[in-house]
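mind reviewing these tokens:
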Amino acid sequence: MVGIGDLSNRVRHLEDLVLSLRKEIAGRQREGAESADTCSAIPDDDARQEVLRRPPQNIDATEDYAEDSTGRMLVGRVGTRWVDATHWQAILDDITELKDFAEPFEHIGDETGDETRDSTFVDAAADGNHGPTLLVGVFPPVSQSELLTFLPPRAVVDRLVSRYFNSKEPSIVILHVPTFYREYTQFWDNPREVSVVWVGLLYTILCCSVASYYRAGDILPGALGESKDIIDAYRTRAVQCLVLADYTTLRRYTVETLVLYLGTEFIRSSETQFGISVILGVIVRLAMHMGYHRDSKRHPSLSVFDGEMRRRVWALISQIDHLVAFQAGLPRIIPDLQCDTELPRNLLDDDFDEATKVLPVSRPATERTPITYTIMKGMLMPVFGQIVEKTCLARSTIHEEVLRLDKQLQDVHASLPPFLHIRTMNLSITDPPDLIMQRYNLELLYQKSRCVLHRQYLTVHRSDLRYAYSRWTCVDAAMHILQHQNDIYQETLPGGQLYKDKWYISSLTTHDFLMAAMILCLELSCKSIHGPQNLQSETINTDLEGRDELLQTLQISYHIWIAFSKTSKEAWKASKALEVMLHNAKRGHHSQGGEQLTGDRQLRPHVVSPGVSGHRSSENSQSQMFVSGETYSRQTGDQYMARDSSLWAIEGMADTVETFDWYAWDNQIQHDNGEVMSGTWMDSSAAADFQSPWFPHTTSPRERID
């Protein structure tokens, strides 16, 4: 609940912020007048295209830096919290929690209560358990014998284990299937001789398996009971095994069990769970204590088999660290300078075992194995990490360094094997769903990296041609992300190619969609505010991205958010923000005497980013929209605001686009997640990078448009 004192403090904070922004705007206007001579010439068509086709070269290192803002300290009633520059939650909640708009956020749990919430969603906090079981779970101590008695009969366990290893979950790569099967057989021969940590590993596998039954709507074998109850029970048993074994004593399979347990925590709620980052910190520390961060080839005491499996485990932990840190708006846990573990080789489990003396040569990257996706993602992640780190530095990054990272990112993306490059769904009709989602995950990571790298130039130096490439890249990447959001959504509807596999989409992906939507909102605001005053910029704008196309993309995204706003607070907030921004954009266009925005015009960028193989399909035109243009025309007017007049409170953000602080935006949107709506148990698993779910399996039926 937001108290009066908190609101007063935030009002004072906003007053200070507005005064500061006014001073900065005045200063920038004076600077703009002084530098007008250098930017007044309007380039002809050929010159514009040449500027936008390639990044600027040889930029002076003494150039103006982008705005220096590295994050913010959020001070609340019960403590402080720091979030860095990469998060999308910022200015919005600073304004939306003020005055009349405070109440909807405080009572969002009531607005999306049991009478409106989908019956398949379960309140993760209903039992009083608001955090990870390992941290806040309360249960009596048990013995290993008692833990063994909780297991169902072997015939049932066999089916659950088989389901897990055939589920295509990324976590499978940290287990060597032939070795696990041998240990599994030995376990049933003599259950009391195995370590309690191994029993915990088995329980995490059973938990993930039951989750796959639940999200698919399948009946569990052996009349086990309600899926969600069994999931909670198996998660608790896994934690009891870890506690009984004292997981700080560095036993074999401790790290692997904790990693799989982390996945079971992700599936508890559709919202950001900050306890996840705490658990991840425990995992990273234990893994480093056990030397997973140092490559085994420098330590002959480790077997070839153990060394390769440790590479797989560390690769997965590192990728989770990148993604969880980005979602939480915090620095990564792993200190890269102290790590030298190589990526695993592209090998099948049958290529090596515990008796292997010399590790086989890696299979070519063009040959798909269960580990290929993890390896390729492991190549993109370090570049993404560098981008996030540079963005969050206490000092700003010069544009020359931004362009260097841009080139590095493009090179790595281009090196991905052809079968992992994004392609349209009509070219994927014979591909398995897990391969399709692997392509989308890699593509979203690539486009997200482009957004984060270049977004600081979206408003700063808007009229400076030196930064035109960065601005185009940021908007283009955001358009790609929202295009993918719509494509995936269409295919997860009943009858779609991904309908049975919608669990691949997750809340970390949601963060990407939110960021992309806000980037396009800001671009529309800039267009509305600048109008014809900045002819050079506006001339380029027309070629970069049509206003109607931006608006149309946001309208599609808005209706997707609406579809999930009753079960996800993040979706609810995104839909509300888009309502205001779409209304502002339409109103601003009308105030300039522009034509009615109906979404009928389709403008495409006339330029191609150098080296970018990403794809924005032209086939996703108006005929493929989530709702028809006629529906849009009924909903994009003043009716947007009629449902919640307090949304007018956040319109002021568009008045400060020249000094738009992405870090404040990131921080404040994230701030509200500290008091998130009751967690909802969606039909998801920890599969896609151990991310929590996004798409419920009870999406309102509608006819797919092919």
About this structure: The beta strands are 71-75, 80-84. The chain has a mean pLDDT of 72. Residues 133-330 form one domain. The CA atoms of residues 345 and 361 lie 8 Å apart.
